[in-house]
TrEMBL record:
Residues 149-272 form the Nudix hydrolase domain. It comes from Microlunatus parietis. GO terms for biological process: NAD+ catabolic process; NADP+ catabolic process. One of its GO terms (molecular function) is NADH pyrophosphatase activity. Its cofactor is Mg(2+); Zn(2+). The lineage of its organism: Bacteria, Bacillati, Actinomycetota, Actinomycetes, Propionibacteriales. Its EC number is 3.6.1.22. InterPro entries: NAD-cap_RNA_hydrolase_NudC, NudC-like_C, NUDIX_hydrolase-like_dom_sf, NUDIX_hydrolase_CS, NUDIX_hydrolase_dom, Znr_NADH_PPase. This is NAD(+) diphosphatase.
Length: 286
């Protein structure tokens, strides 16, 4: 099971990275390593996606292209958007196969590269911005503003009915894939308010006993998934048939039977959705 609860070993060196000279010195370190990501934020791995393929920096340091992710066991780790060679995967595909440290590197690199690609201009005045702080911020010389990567919070909820069945469903375009339900937090909402609103909008359920489960970065492109469990007041549900095409309550035996028959598919093991479903199957949901 993927664990995001412990402290990360990736030191983001926030106290030093404002110095371009210091970052350039790290780039020249014999211990420096570089993760290349292509224009779809896919990175090179060993066969089957079991290990990140990090290389030594191979050109002169360019502060506008090379992103310092941090130090890992005192080794500087950078990322760059560049052509890749060999087998490539995105974070979603292989996160469950990576070590905790590799997962932190891959998530940080993906989030940072996605942000720089999508935000080349100042959101305040529209002027061009430049990279500062080793890639952790951008600066607009026109309005003299610094800008930082955005994270979009989303809630994802494992809902049980009074008989301890789990509510699963899917987008109308998902085919046989089903999951627990999720949605973005809106401006001015608390996380708990977002849980109530989203679940009412998607499946028309009223909830009680909302309990925090855990979180997961999901840099496709910049989400932070915040997991909860909750109890439905009743088993009555309603869907719109358009955005949500299917929803149903499952016992553990029913879910297992449909999975074994190939009638449904669950989220990939790298996702917090998978963790929530598995916690329910193991009777370990809070």
């Amino acid at each position: 099971m993927i664990n995001w609860a412990t402290a990360s070993d990736l030191d983001r060196v926030d106290e030093h990275r404002h110095s371009a000279e210091w970052v350039a010195h790290l780039w020249r370190s014999p211990e420096a390593k570089l993760l290349k990501l292509d224009d779809q934020s896919r990175f090179t791995t060993n066969a089957g996606g079991s290990k990140l393929r990090l290389v030594k920096p191979f050109v002169e340091y360019d502060p506008q292209r090379h992103r310092l992710l941090g130090l890992l066991d005192d080794a500087p780790i950078f990322a760059v958007e560049a052509l890749t060679e060999g087998e490539v995967h995105d974070f979603r595909d292989v996160a469950h196969q990576l070590t905790d440290n590799e997962r932190d590197v891959a998530a940080t690199a993906t989030a940072m590269i996605n942000w720089h690609r999508s935000e080349p201009h100042c959101p305040r005045c529209g002027g061009p911005t430049s990279v500062i702080n080793g890639g952790s911020a951008r600066y607009c010389p026109t309005c003299e503003q610094e800008h930082f990567p955005r994270t979009d919070p989303a809630v994802i909820v494992a809902i049980r009915d009074p008989d301890d069945r789990l509510l699963l469903g899917g987008n109308a375009k998902w085919g046989n894939r089903i999951s627990v339900f999720a949605g973005f937090v809106e401006a001015g909402e608390s996380l708990e308010q977002a849980v109530h609103r989203e679940m009412a909008e998607e499946v028309d359920v009223r909830l009680t006993d909302i309990t925090y489960f855990g979180s997961q970065p999901w840099p496709m492109p910049r989400s932070l998934m915040l997991g909860f469990s909750a109890r439905a007041v009743s088993a009555e549900i309603s869907i719109d048939g358009e955005e949500i095409g299917y929803a149903a309550w499952f016992t553990r035996d029913e879910l297992t039977a449909k999975l074994e028959a190939g009638e449904i598919a669950l989220p990939g093991r790298s996702s917090i959705a998978s963790r929530l479903v598995q916690a329910w199957r193991d009777d370990e949901l809070p």
